[in-house]
Amino acid sequence: MKRIIYFFMLCCMATSCGMMSTVTRESQYAKMYEEKPITLLVMPPINNSTNVEAKDLLYTSISRPLVEAGYYVISPLLAMDVLKAESAYDSEMFFDASLTSFQNYFGADAVVFSVIDTWTKKGLGIETKIRYVIKSAYTNEILFDRSCDLYLDLSIDSGANGLLGALVDLAASAINTAATDHIMAARKANYYILRDIPRGKYSPEYMLDKQTAAEKKDVVARVK
């Protein structure tokens, strides 16, 4: 009888596993594959944190992972000058507004928004919480939406034993935290968020990654 019950349980488990379907990039980012954006305009970040420098620091780190993913990104320096001249530096004004003007003016297919909710020192590290939203410049629909709650651990373990060793490590960690540029945490958050983006036209994986398993939309990570 026990063997029969065990066999029945195995069959049920196999059936349930077979019914579970993997979420693919194509299903999770369907609009991205439909519209196939080529040119992206990165807007200045929306800063909800208490770190007044976060906006400018993050803005310098957004373009690279998008370029590496196969997209043409309009020069942030050029875009910044134009946006400031047109009094369009505050991205909050455009997040829920029509984006067709950016398509007409810059030739952008999609607009990249970033929202900083947290960017601060915490303990012996730096905590960031950042969200990226890519919206179509034609339809205003959301093509990509992911966030990352990341803690960059800057503590140092020298391997020394005893109380003295612990004090040395603590002092070194404090110095490391003070000297480390906050932008390193943002770059790591960028990596976790944008590594799941469908590849653009200039990537050898373009339109070949549809069946790649998609990651969770909200990422929580603790990294060194």
Number of domains: 1
CATH class division: Alpha Beta
Cα radius of gyration in angstroms:
22 Å
For the report, how would you describe the main beta sheet? 7 strands, mixed
Q: What is the annotated CATH architecture?
A: 3-Layer(aba) Sandwich
What pattern of helices and strands is seen along the backbone? Answer: HHHEEHHEHHEEEHHE
| Strand portion | 15-25%
Number of helices: 9
CATH topology: Rossmann fold
Helix-strand category: alpha/beta
Distance between the termini: 52 Å
Uncertain segments are: 4-20, 162-179
What would you give as the CATH superfamily? ABC-type transport auxiliary lipoprotein component
- Described by the principal axes of the CA atoms, the overall outline is globular
SS elements, strand count: 7
- Average pLDDT metric: 83
Helix content: 25-40%
Structure characterization notes:
With 224 residues, this protein is α/β, with parallel strands linked by helices. The chain has a single domain, classed as 3-Layer(aba) Sandwich (Rossmann fold), CATH 3.40.50.10610. It is built from 9 helices and 7 strands; from the N terminus they run αααββααβααβββααβ. It has helices at 2-19, 25-28, 30-35, 54-59, 63-68, 76-85, 100-106, 162-179, 183-194; strands at 39-42, 46-47, 72-73, 110-122, 125-136, 142-153, 218-223. Strands 1, 2, 3, 4, 5, 6 and 7 form a 7-stranded mixed beta sheet that branches. Strand 5 (125-136) and strand 6 form a beta hairpin. The N and C termini lie far apart (52 Å).
